[in-house]
Amino acid sequence: MNDCTEENRLLWLSFLKGDQDAFSTLYKNNYRMLYAYGRRLQMEENQIRDIIHDIFLKLYAKPDLIKNVTTIRPFLLVSMRNAFINWKKKMQRQTDMDVLDFDLHYTVENEFWDKEQLMDVKKKVEHIVQQLTPRQKEIIYLRFLYEMSYEEVAQIMGMSEQAARNLVYRTMDRIRKDNLQAAFALFLF
């Protein structure tokens, strides 16, 4: 269990015992993660803030929504994702899961010796990312950037753990086959 999960667990247990400050800290500790996830889902800033606020209001009013204290972070991300999908469906009147246009941004540290090399790597990563479907982008984001377990990824994306493993495998296989010489660049961000 990573530190974030353990801290969330301890804060949640403190909140359940009546510590209001623990709930406030839980909100503050997870706000950035949820905000970043909302931006990657291409939500508007006001919409993100409203959804985060609503998620925590719902948790405050109904703490029994968290069945297992180790699933707080996945619960928050699933709630964010579901709120976006519901909003998108309402706006576009679509029920297809591909309404989720996941935007996988990347960052490359300035550890490169010259700007040409940096630009070359950015172009390669951009090319790789453009070839991925929205679901592939999302699973790579959750699995490798947030370093989430397959169980957590599966819970967030509404699929079985084996389906999550298969999707990661197929995505990585596609990257390797399509971009053999540039595949390493995806993991530099």
From TrEMBL:
Family: Belongs to the sigma-70 factor family. ECF subfamily.
High-level lineage: Bacteria, Pseudomonadati, Bacteroidota, Sphingobacteriia, Sphingobacteriales
Taxonomic superkingdom: Bacteria
Domain RNA polymerase sigma-70 region span(s) in chain numbering: 26-93
Presence of keyword Transcription: yes
Keyword terms: Sigma factor, Transcription, Transcription regulation
Cross-referenced InterPro entries: RNA_pol_sigma-70-like, RNA_pol_sigma-70_dom, RNA_pol_sigma70_r2, RNA_pol_sigma70_r4_t2, RNA_pol_sigma_r2, RNA_pol_sigma_r3/r4-like, WH-like_DNA-bd_sf
Record has Transcription as a keyword: yes
Protein name, per record: RNA polymerase sigma factor
